Amino acid sequence: MDDLLTIAGKSYSSRLLVGTGKYKDFAETRAAIDASGAEIVTVAIRRTNIGQDPNAPSLLDALPPSQFTYLPNTAGCYTADDAVRTLRLARELLDDHRLVKLEVLGDPHTLFPNMPETLKAAAVLVKEGFEVMVYCADDPIQAKMLEDIGCVAVMPLASLIGSGMGILNPWNVQLVRDAVKVPVLVDAGVGTASDAAIAMELGCDGVLMNTAIALAKDPVKMAGAMKKGVEAGREAWLAGRMPKKFYTASPSSPTTGLIGS
Question: Quick one: pLDDT at residue 227?
């Protein structure tokens, strides 16, 4: 494939990134990831065993790092210091792994990003050599600030984490897309395949999701649907949709050379 997603110098054929939380067990996690076609998987360092507990089942056995690119994240962190500490731990557990997802939350009710703390943490992590993908508000000014710090991708929320509400402000997502040159991936709020397709039709480079797949009635089937939604949306964006014409119809068939005329 020529149309690859490139992040921090590495290319991927899939533009769908999938989380590893909320599944009933690691077997279901693996089946859903396989169905999604995702090559990058996120893991919450504070909630998932990747070697912290040698006596418990490890995600590393279900999803070997030799087969998937891990994206450790700072889910559950509310300060820059907490987030930095968590990703330093991930680097140790994953043999000097540098590609990470930064998220610093503002409150436990909305899980909205705390942008001042996010910017602070991003600056520290980039300086320490991390390749930072960052969960952020759908704000083009702050997205540009994150790019200027050196983040390798910005990830604006479409709606609240785990809400399944879809893309509530597509104009802001497009503003973010136009403001930066690094990849833009919609993160948080996707509920079904059409939401993923819309994100891609807006020109986003990818979509990250977890709850929409893990809490579906059939997670494996939903993972397959999300794969198709992302691919269809990307193809539609590359094709270039027809312009919208308000109050003006355009016949699908020719209006000249009609029979009997």
Answer: 98
Per-residue pLDDT tens digits for 80-106: 999 999 999 999 888 888 999 999 999
User: Could you tell me the pTM of the whole model?
Assistant: 0.89
Which residue numbers are catalytic? 101
150: Cα within 13 Å, side-chain hemisphere: 13
Helix, coil or strand: residue 135: strand
How many alpha carbons lie under 13 Å from residue 255 in its C-beta half-sphere?
Answer: 4
The candidate with the shortest Cα–Cα distance to 209, out of 136, 102, 201, 222, is 222
How many other C-beta atoms can be found within 10 angstroms of the C-beta atom of residue 12? 17
Query: 230-246 as b/e, with b when 16 or more CB fall inside 10 Å?
Result: bbbbbeebeeeeeeeee
| CA angle 99–138–91, rounded 5-degree value | 15
The DSSP bridge partners found for residue 18 are 41, 209
Per-residue pLDDT tens over the stretch 44-63 = 887 777 767 777 777 888 88
- Provide the strand spans (E) within the chain: 5-7, 10-12, 16-19, 40-44, 69-73, 99-102, 131-136, 153-156, 185-187, 206-209
Q: Residue with structure tokens 């999604």?
A: 36
Q: Is residue 84 classed exposed, middle or buried when 0-12, 13-18 and 19+ CB atoms within 10 A define those classes?
A: buried
Amino acid occupying residue 48: T
d(CA 188, CA 185): 10
Pairwise CA distance, residues 99 & 182, whole Å: 15
Q: 133 forms bridges with which residues in the sheet?
A: 101, 153
d(CA 19, CA 199): 18
Q: Are 70 and 47 in contact (CB under 8 A)?
A: no
